[in-house]
Every structure is written in structure tokens, then in C-alpha cells.
Design goal:
The chain is built from 8 helices and 7 strands. It has about 240 residues and is an alpha/beta fold.
Length: about 240
């Protein structure tokens, strides 16, 4: 039985990934920080539906590097890590507080990279390892008013391109799935009018749903996908790219 760690399992995309992987036979470590109720509800649903698999909750604040060490000590067998966590800060970069930028870099870049360092041996032990980041179209094209977020997401693609070359011979792949506009809670910060205007610019005509992103996670986790590594896959409905 294969084990995957989903960072941000209580978020919209993370929850969908958890449901899809559970249906495909994976046992899961379900990470959360503040959304305890959502995480416990997800664990309960999966445990009832998939009785032959295990679903373990792990809580960690990824803005603190020490939390990564504590998290790694709770992991035993590990075949894949999916990083589905993320927040943004909307506004002019000139007005972005250093504390907010530091928080984004720590949570979405530095802590994930350190977690990869401390779990590298586990991921390579079966000569099958998958590291998947949920990035963003903005990591490739950039977005005014979300400069910090764009910078962090772009760094993930640079990391995947470089680190994949180090671990390919170990059977470990590293890839980024970069969605465009997705119908998640994070995008509810924008008004309905703004969301409708964005949707009108997307050739596919609508925001993606979480299933349309989770599909690509499942595809990369397939054994037959072992030759795909170091890539950023843009899932945008034709928008911006």
C-alpha cells in the first residue's frame, strides 16, 4: 500500500486530492493547521468509506521551521508528497509588509523544501517517489497586485526543474501543477463581479473546479508517469498562457 502526505488537506484542492487518492487505494497523511473541523470531518469520511486504508491527521504550522521536524517524525512509509497549501496577499508590492512576504516565503517555499530534505530517504526507498506542488499560472506569467505570491510560485517551478535532476536516478519525480483561476475559498476574496469578469477572459469560459486540478495529481502519481519530471503543467482553460 502506498502512502501520500497531503500538505493542506483541509483546503478545497487538498480535500479533493485526498478523496481521489483514497478512491485509488492510497493511505494518507492529512495535514492541516487551523482548519481542525474540516480535517477531522475529512478523515472520518474517508475512514468510513475506505476501511482497508489508513488516514492519519498531522497538524503543523509551516510558518515555523521547527514544525517541519515535528511533522517529519510522524511519517513512516512515504511514497508521495503533494503540497496543496497556499495563501496570497493582494495589493501593491510597495505596500506589502515584510512580515506578510516572510510568511508566504516560509510557508509556501522554505518549509516545503526543508520537508523534502528530511524525507528524501523515505521517498527514494522504493525507487518510486513523487513530489508534486500545486503552483499557479502567476508563477509563470506574473500578476500585478500579487507580486509576492507570483514570486513564491515561480520559485517552486525553478526548484522542480533543478531538484528533479538530482533525484531522477533514485526514481523520484518532481513536478508542479500550475492552475489558472480555480473556484476555491481563496478566490472568494474577490467579488462576484470580478470573478465573472475573469471567467469571461478564460477561453474555457469558467473557473476550474477542484476535480479538474486533482486529476493531474492522480496522473503524475501513476507508475507510468515516471518519465515526467522537472515540469510545470499549466492547467488554465487556455487563460493567459
Amino acid at each position: 500500500m502506498k502512502w501520500a502526505l497531503i500538505i493542506g488537506a483541509s483546503g478545497d484542492i487538498g480535500t479533493q486530492v485526498a478523496k481521489d487518492l483514497a478512491a485509488a487505494g492510497w493511505s494518507l497523511y492529512l495535514h492541516y493547521f487551523k482548519s481542525s473541523e474540516r480535517a477531522h470531518q475529512l478523515q472520518k469520511q474517508l475512514a468510513i468509506k475506505f476501511t482497508k486504508q489508513d488516514f492519519l491527521l498531522v497538524q503543523a504550522d509551516l510558518t515555523a521551521i521547527r514544525a517541519v521536524d515535528e511533522l517529519s517524525q510522524q511519517l513512516f512509509s512515504l511514497d508521495a508528497i503533494i503540497f496543496a497549501q497556499g495563501t496570497t496577499s493582494y495589493g501593491l508590492f510597495q505596500q506589502l509588509p515584510p512580515s506578510e512576504m516572510t510568511k508566504m516565503v516560509q510557508m509556501q517555499l522554505l518549509s516545503p523544501l526543508y520537508l523534502i530534505q528530511v524525507t528524501a530517504d523515505k521517498l527514494a526507498i522504493n525507487h518510486f517517489g513523487r513530489i508534486i506542488f500545486i503552483g499557479s499560472i502567476y508563477g509563470g506569467v506574473g500578476s500585478a497586485m500579487e507580486v509576492g505570491y507570483s514570486t513564491v510560485k515561480g520559485a517552486l517551478s525553478a526548484f522542480a526543474s533543478a531538484y528533479s535532476k538530482e533525484v531522477a536516478s533514485l526514481g523520484v519525480t518532481v513536478n508542479v501543477i500550475a492552475p489558472g483561476a480555480v473556484a476555491t475559498r481563496m478566490n472568494n476574496m474577490f467579488s462576484a463581479t470580478v470573478r465573472q469578469a475573469v471567467a469571461a477572459e478564460i477561453p474555457a469560459g469558467h473557473f476550474a473546479n477542484s476535480q479538474e486540478i486533482s486529476y493531474w495529481v492522480k496522473a503524475i502519481l501513476a507508475p507510468a508517469a515516471d518519465y515526467l519530471t522537472g515540469q510545470t503543467i499549466y492547467v488554465t482553460g487556455g487563460w493567459l498562457k
